[in-house]
Every structure is written in C-alpha cells, then in structure tokens.
Amino acid sequence: MRIERRLRQPRWLFVAVPAGSLVFAFFASGLVLLATGHDAVSSYRQIVDAAFLNSGALGQTLTQATPLAFTGLAAAAAFRMRLFNIGAEGQLFMGAIAADAAGLFLGGHGWPTAVVIFAMVVAGCAGGAAWALIPGLLRAFFKTNEIITSLMLNYVAAYVLTYLIFNTQSYWRETKGFNASVFPTSKTLPDVAFWPSATLHARGGIALPLGAGIAVLVALLLWFLYTRTRFGFEAQVLGDSPRAARYAGMRTRRKILAVMAISGAVAGIGGASQVGDFSHTLDADPNGLQKQYYGYTGIVVAALARYNPLACVVVAFLIGALQNAGNTLQGADFPSGLVGVMQGIILFSALGGELLVRYRVRVGRTLPAAEAEAA
Amino acid sequence: MNNSLLVVVLASGVAYGTPLLYGALGELLAERSGVLNLGVEGMMLVGAVMGFWTVQRLHADTGISLAAAIGVAALAGTAMAAIHAFLVITLRASQIVSGLALTIFAGAAGLSSYLGNDLNLADNPARHSFNAVFPASMQRWPVVGPILFGQNVLVYASWACVLAVSLYLSRTRLGLNVRAVGEAPASADAMGINVTAYRYAHTLAGGAFAGIAGATFTLAITPQWVSGITGGAGWIAIALVIFAFWRPALCLVGAYFFGALQALSPQLQARQIHLGPTELWTNSLPYVMTVVVLVFVSASGARRRLGAPASLGLPYVREER
Asked: How far apart are CA B66 and CA B219, in angstroms?
C-alpha cells in the first residue's frame, strides 16, 4: 500500500470528504456512548427530535446556529491566511459589550429602530475588531504567536464582561429596582433596540432572526472578498507561502492587520446579535453566554467547511442543531460534554479525511500512465 | 514573617506553578521532537478527571490510591496524545488544527466534562490528596519553611523531572537523537534514526506529563473536580515552552513566575487590598502577563538561535524531502 500525492484534487472530494467525516464521526461517537453505558440508537433519536422535529426545535436550532455562523466565519476568514485567530470567543464578548452600550445609549435617546440596529452592528464590529487587533498588532510587529495571545485574551474578555456587571456600577449594570438589589444584572435594552425577526412558521415557532440574515450576507461578502478580489488572492498567497508573497511585494503586516480586524469584526457582530436578537441584555452570568463556547465551536464549523464562507453557513446550521440538542437534552442520560466530544470527533474525522483530499491511497505497485508521464 | 504577602504568594506560587511545570516539560519533549501539541489543556483536563476518579473509586490506602491516580492520569493523558500523534504523524494533518481539535474534544466542554458528569464526580472533595511531606516544625522555618518545605511530593518529583529531562536531552544518545529529529528529520532519517517512532514516543510522553499536570489540580491544589478546573493552565504551559527557549531549567523559573501571578489574585482579595478595578486586573494578570512575556520573547528575535526546533510543526514525509 502506498500513499502518494494527488496531482489534481477532484472537486467532488471537497463535498464527499466532509460528508464522509460526519458519517464516520457519528459511528465513532456511538462507540463512545456505548463504552460509557448509554444506548447509542436512542440517544441519536433524541438528538434528531430535539434538534429538528419537536415543536419549536427548529427555532431553537436557528438560535444556536446564528452565533456559530458568525464565529465560524470569523475563524474561516483568518484561518484561510493561516492566521490562527482562536480569540473569537473574546471578540464576541467585546462585540456584545460595545453593541449593548450602543443600544442602551441610542435606544434610550429615542432614535428610530433602524438607526439603533445599524449602530449596534457597527459597534459590535468595532468592539470585536479592536479586541482582535491586539494579537494582530503583536503578530504583525513583534511576530508574537497569535494562537496563544488571542486565546489568552478570551479569558481577559470574560473577566471584563463579568466585572462590568458584578464588580462595579457600570453603565451596563441595572442599578434600579428590587431585582437589581438582590442579584447583579444588566440593564434590559429599550424596545426600539430589539432586532426584528421574520416569522417562517407561526405555529411551529420558527422565526428567522435578523442576525441569521446578516450572517448569510457576511458569508456572501467574505466569499466574494476571498475568491473574487485581489485582497483575497493576496491573503491566500500569504497563507500558502509567506516568502513568495514577500518577494512579490505583498504587504504582509497590513494584510495581517486587515484580516485580523475582519475576523474580529465578524465575531463582534455575533456578539451584537446575541444582545439584539436573543438576550436583550448583556449576559455576564458565568453559566450563561460564557458556557456556550461559541468561539471555540466556530473553529469546528470553519474546519468542517474547509474555510469556505458559504459552506460555513450550512455547517453552522448542522452544528447548531447538535448544540441545541445538547442544551435541550442535558441531564442524566445525556451528560453535558457529550456534544463537545461529538464535535471533537467530527473535527478529528475531517482532519483525517483531509489526507484523502491531498493524497491517494493506492494498493499495489503499478504506476498509472498519466502520473508516470507527469513524473 | 511567614504570613507576609511575599512569602505566601511565593509559597503558593510554587504550588500553582507545579502543573504548569509538568505541562511545559511534556510539551517541551514533544516540541523538541518536532511535534507541536496545542491540546495540552484538553489532555490536562482528562488527566485531572481520571486521576480524581481513581482516588474516589479505588478503595486502598492513601499512598497506593494516590500513586494509582497519578498512573491513571498519565495514561489518560497519553491516550489523548495518541489521537494527536496518529493524526499529525501518520495522517500528516495540520498540527495546529489537530491540537485545537484535541482541546475541543477533551476540554472543558468535551470529554473531561462528559466523564465528570457521567461518573458523578462533581460536588465531592477528594478522598485522598497530596499533603506537605515535611514535619510542621520545618514548615515554620522563616521564609524557606513554607516555600521549600511546605510542599507536597508532586512538587519535589517535578524537580526530579526537570533534572531528568534536562540530562536526557543534553547528555544521552537518545536525547541527542530527539533533537536531531526535531531539527532536521531528513538528516536524522539518513542516519538511521526512526523519525516516526521518536515523534510518537515523545508526543505520548508529553501527554503523560500533561495528564499528571491535570491530576495536580484535582489531587493537590484544590482537591475536587470542577469542569474546566485548569482554567487555561494548559495554554500557559505552551507559552512557557516558548518563554523558556525550549530549555527545561528555564521552564521551572517561568512556571513559578506564572504560579505566583495566579496566587496573587486570591491573596490580594483575601487581604482586602484594593487597587483600582482589583477583581479585573488580578484575575486577568496571569493571562495578560503571558501575552506580555511572549511579546518580549518574540521581539528579542532570533528565535531559531534561542532554540525553536527547526522542523517544529512540519510533518515529515520521506518521499517529499
């Protein structure tokens, strides 16, 4: 048996390999379930019911898929240039903080809904981009490993979020009323700052949040940017071969900063959507937003989508369904953490499957004519 | 005197630094052979939960059950590292993405949390835990008492590990081969060194160290299981390897420095010392300092001269030299 590099990578493999990885991952996760004494078949049936079939399940899946689309796109935008921004978690928190401030301020001063929502999106972008530019600047000017710095800043962002609500009388914190004196909470946004949603199926409780629409728009923009513009081409070259890019006169530093800012901004809109679409407050509860790990799950989404922005949206929906099932079923016969295990196995399978995209496994020793010529 | 802020912070800095030290030593071994493993956090957490499980379920004397727990934790870490090793060495997957995948798979929202819930480990203190080795009279000696003699056996064992790894890499034939594999795998291969075997062995050894590092949390520092108990220590351990320029002895210095930073926050809060937004900066301090230290190390340039293995992160394929 030999493993040889493919000269040409057939297109169908780009779909077949992720799909095959998903199937393989389901079998492997089933083994984990069996090994820990659970009935795999009934667990899977419960997952499908909770993710798609039960009343209101699809709506919940969309709720989970929306932030994952943003964090997935954020990871894809950076990973494409081999810039490993794993700080989407913190950038999402920062986007949420900034968007919440914008919503509270403009909404409180009676601006119309459209303006408030637009300002919240912009603020979310700015918050996320600013947080992502810290590792970006350090990478561009000091060659500091962005993996570790962006990850460390996730913890810092979480502490900032907690601090704003729990340890100080900040602008975000509710100081009036009975509840606020019992337990620290954040202010609720004024009604004009609530993001609208499109009702798809009133009786089934399926509504498409505005954030999901924005995510699709962002995916289209990123797809255009990376496949149809010079910017995207240069980012790709810089990722594949930094030395070749430098000889060709591409500006490495500028591109690192731009890509990090884009990545952070996308994650930041995810934070804005959390505030505007779903919670309508700044969720600083250590068991709330911070326990969803949207930023890290975004890496799973991006890798499974092979860093393709359009595919990210589809994958985010599937992983969102899994996440939703995990949240709903959490309990004795569905221990929390199982969803993370399944996501990890999916990612491992996708990585292993990558071998089949880049190489062909050949049994026997004969060299086919086409490749003999090429050699 | 032994209650002064400095002594208390240094003494608990050694305790908090010990898991960082074990994790960094393991990562150093893997990286010296050319394999970057970003899954330390995940391997630590699985080691932590499995070590704790052993202590809770095994009915034996304190000494035996703690020794068994360390063994199980090391095995659990090794098993996690085996996934990474197979993916990056045999299947040639991206080391960065595979390491991230390992942390997602095993980490705070994954396997470690699943095992903790499924085995009902939360909300109970450990039945046995590591305690100070030396008699209380020695621990009362000024300054050195709490810092040097107030520690548990894992701390002293970690010093032995630093010495062992250091001698192994610099003074033995095997250690020399490891460095060759990490620096120039093609030349090592031509010399007849089995690159694949060396990389597997050291990645697995790195996993064992990470597993022990995790058990340090659940059996010594805070003897209980809480999901995500390591709180990013695995990542700090990876940063430490860079900070230490891939040298074991410097890992020791760095680990205690970051350990002391982690010890500072609870101490300041306990002593009611307030300086600005205290809760914010004391909690963030270890993470912010990791970033700051990394910037200094990378800005000082010439990483190669300072010891980064030349083939770190690159798969070795004999036909594609």
From this structure: 8
Asked if the structure places residue A103 within a domain, the reply is yes
CA A132 to chain centre: 14
In a domain, A34, yes or no: no
Q: Which residue has the higher pLDDT, A201 or B206?
A: B206
| ipTM entry | 0.88
Q: Number of folded domains in chain A?
A: 1
Q: Which of A153, A158, A162, A157 is nearest to A135 (CA)?
A: A153
Q: Please tell me which of the candidates A151, A167, A354 has its beta carbon nearest to residue B279.
A: A167
For residue A324, how far is the Cα from the chain centroid?
A: 15
Domains detected in chain B: 5-320 (1.10.3470)
CA dist B64 → B57, B60, B132 (Å) = 13, 6, 17
Inter-chain contact A340–B96, Cβ cutoff 8 Å? no
Residue A124: is its pLDDT beyond 60? yes
Q: Give the H or E element holding residue A208.
A: strand A206-209
Backbone angles phi, psi at B10, to 5 degrees: -65, -40
In a mutagenesis test of the B interface, which of A148, A289, A297 is the best target, namely the one with the most B β-carbons within 10 Å?
A148
Domain that holds residue A107: 69-303
CB contact under 8 Å between A303 and B291, yes or no, is no
Cβ–Cβ contact A24 with B under 8 A: no
* Subunit contact B87:A153, Cβ cutoff 8 A: no
Distance of alpha carbon A26 from alpha carbon A30, whole angstroms? 6
With contact defined as beta carbons under 8 Å apart, do A360 and A33 qualify? no
The nearest alpha carbon in chain A to B92 belongs to: A355
Q: Where are the alpha helices (DSSP H) in B300-319?
A: 303-306
Q: Quick one: three-class SS letters along A32-99?
A: HHHHCCCCHHHHHHHHHHHHHHCCCHHHHHHHHHHHHHHHHHHHHHHHCCCCCCCCHHHHHHHHHHHH
Residue A1 lies in a domain: no
Per-residue pLDDT tens over the stretch A340-349: 898 899 999 9
